[in-house]
Write a structure and sequence with these properties.
358 residues; two-stranded antiparallel ribbon; 14 helices
């Protein structure tokens, strides 16, 4: 929005030229989202408290979680609000990729809101049925993917990290693959959101990584120099990713241990969906396995636990997702959180290194 109002003023004064640059708007999208978080966060948290929107803790979970009962949840609404406002202010809204990302982010957020509402307001045990939730996510992801595939006519090839010019054309299988990436990322982040600040820390690292990747793949000269797939107009998504970083940092202010508010599905599903969509549009879908390694680990731990119990009647972990396993092994919650953050930083750096190691 500011791009349209202020950039045309460059003909009157050169200072307004800065609004044409993606880097400038990315920085201020992040700063805007961060400041807005500080402004609206306390108000929304108090509103959630007054509405008795408190966390419902599993009785079979780690004993130390019982003290978290009643802590305000659905705080992901803070992230969703400031993210959308920041993007609308700083992004070039003529870019179709921006709208595709907004659609997935808001769509997944609405699904998360309904799930949270069912659990904490109507007190429906388990919230939405798993099948219904998955189908709703798949519908949102499918609509966005079909729009990207048919209307924007994107390349159906995927790139392979660490291999120079290695591409695999999925052709007709691209659409289901992209849907799986979006839905999988959304659910993986949701599974990770089990400790104070555990999910939002790696999300900051992942969003920052895709912020860089979006800018690089959207710049024809840099993309050709690095031998990465050039995606026209994808550079604008750096602004969106920057807003994600700012919104996530702002939420971490309130979510850090001991948390004043929990993200809830409204935040985790929307952020995960946005991350998966960024990976799809920037043609770095496979790299998401490395960038979001913590999220992948959490999801795999649940899959392994369920499969093992159904096949053998035995559990591999003391409890899944894996962060609960370490809790039951006696690790203090802050230690688990910070160590997972450290791992996510290392994985992000490794992902960036693939730009040269190929």
């Amino acid at each position: 929005m500011l791009y349209y109002f202020l950039y045309p003023l460059a003909k009157y004064h050169t200072v307004f030229n800065v609004f044409q640059y993606i880097t400038f708007r990315t920085i201020y999208a992040a700063i805007t989202a961060l400041i807005l978080s500080f402004l609206v966060g306390p108000y929304l948290i108090e509103r959630l408290k007054s509405m008795n929107v408190g966390e419902v803790v599993r009785k079979d979970g780690p004993p130390n979680h019982l003290g978290k009962e009643g802590t305000p949840t659905m705080g992901g609404a803070i992230i969703l609000l400031v993210l959308v406002v920041s993007v609308l202010l700083w992004a070039n809204l003529a870019n179709p990729y921006v709208w595709a990302l907004l659609f997935v982010t808001i769509g997944m957020g609405v699904i998360g809101f309904i799930d949270d509402y069912s659990k904490v307001i109507t007190r429906k045990k388990g919230g939405m049925k798993g099948r219904t939730k998955f189908l709703a996510q798949a519908a949102v992801a499918s609509a966005a993917t079909l729009y990207i595939y048919y209307y924007l006519n994107v390349d159906t090839s995927i790139t392979i990290p660490f291999l120079k010019d290695a591409r695999l054309d999925l052709k007709m299988f691209y659409v289901p693959f992209a849907v799986c990436v979006m839905v999988g990322a959304s659910n993986a982040v949701n599974l990770t959101d089990g400790l104070d600040g555990l999910a939002i820390g790696p999300m900051i690292m992942a969003a920052a990584t895709y912020m860089l990747l979006a800018y690089l793949v959207g710049h024809v000269k840099i993309a050709n120099y690095l031998h990465v797939m050039y995606v026209p107009r994808a550079g604008e998504l750096a602004v969106f990713a920057g807003a994600m970083v700012g919104a996530s940092l702002g939420f971490l202010w309130f979510n850090t241990y001991p948390a004043q508010v929990f993200m809830g599905d409204v935040g985790s599903l929307s952020l995960g969906g946005a991350l998966g969509t960024l990976a799809v549009i920037t043609k770095n879908e496979v790299l998401l396995l490395l960038v979001g390694g913590i999220f992948v680990l959490e999801a795999l731990s649940v899959i392994v636990q369920v499969a093992s119990f159904k096949l053998t009647g035995k559990r591999v972990f003391a409890m899944a997702p894996i962060h609960h396993h370490y809790e039951l092994k006696g690790w203090p919650e802050p230690k688990i959180i910070v160590r997972f953050w450290i791992i996510s930083i290392i994985l992000a750096l490794m992902a960036i290194s693939t730009l040269k190691i190929r």
